[in-house]
Amino acid sequence: MSDDGVVMVYGNGAALEPKKSxxxxxKVGLAQMxxxxxxxxxxxxxxxxxxxxxxxxxxxxxxxxxxxxxxxGGVARMSDPGLIKEIxxxxxxxxxxxxxxxxxxxxxxxxxxxxxxxxxxxVLTPADDQNHIxxxxxxxxxxxxxxxxxxxxxxxREGAAMIRTKGEAGTGNIIEAVRHVRSxxxxxxxxxxxxxxxxxxxxxxxxxxxxxVMQTKQLGRLPVVHFAAxxxxxxxxxxxxxxxxCDGVFVGSGIFKSGDPAQRARxxxxxxxxxxxxxxxxxxxxxxxxxxxxxxxxxxxxxxFASRSE
Length: 310
Ligand SMILES: O=C(CO)[C@H](O)[C@H](O)COP(=O)(O)O
Fold this sequence. Notes:
This protein has helices spanning 24-32, 45-54, 66-72, 81-90, 104-112, 149-157, 175-192, 199-205, 210-219, 235-243, 253-256, 261-273, 278-284; strands spanning 38-42, 58-61, 95-100, 117-121, 142-146, 162-165, 225-228, 248-251.
């Protein structure tokens, strides 16, 4: 436990470590450095510079922001490695990049060009509808999405060193992000109050490895860093994710599909830093110009990226 009462998971990584890998706890520790930060989707070196200047703790290189993936359709893939290299040269903060679910060759390519993290992401078109990447086969740390505690712990068992709740990327609508964060946090609260004897059945019910469920119970939180993603469009949305207990946020479309990306990016960083101070939140939310338009999710025709994997 650290001074601020936060459970430090770095030293606990060894308990999650399969025999095969000697690096898992190092990857988990590396992701800790991102806590309290904002990770911004960027598609060009210029956008990466805007993100860094605004105070992003990392950027996520992808071929199109999720709102454009939705609007344009087609198969969304890993972005051009040449472009990712240019983005790496443009900034000093860590650069993440997305690989399709199950596409371990895209991940090999991203590792070979030196990205700092790979996001095995449902925002891209899945390559394998049964299997995720065996992330223990890589030196580079992975982040993966989840909608609930079981899904988070399954990804961690496969080697994810960081988790993000999925939300619904590219909608500018926070409702699914709230649902997913509340689901994870609610299950952790229920788990903490459970008798140890009940954990076997609970682990079976959420289809998660017993040892990771038990570790989560003991820590009172996910055993790796947990960010929110998908639908964050305003400083208030970002602060909401933090007040619900997340360690940081990913923002994609919400910044670069808004009227003034640089100003909105700065405001969202401030909101994450001062997430429990409504006066600062009021100040940074003022005069930001147009937010992204967004999509109403009660429309059944809207594709759910979050349901693309279990
Ligand atoms: O997939 C992501 C995180 O890995 C995206 O960065 C995130 O979900 C973006 O969503 P949005 O465009 O709604 O902000």
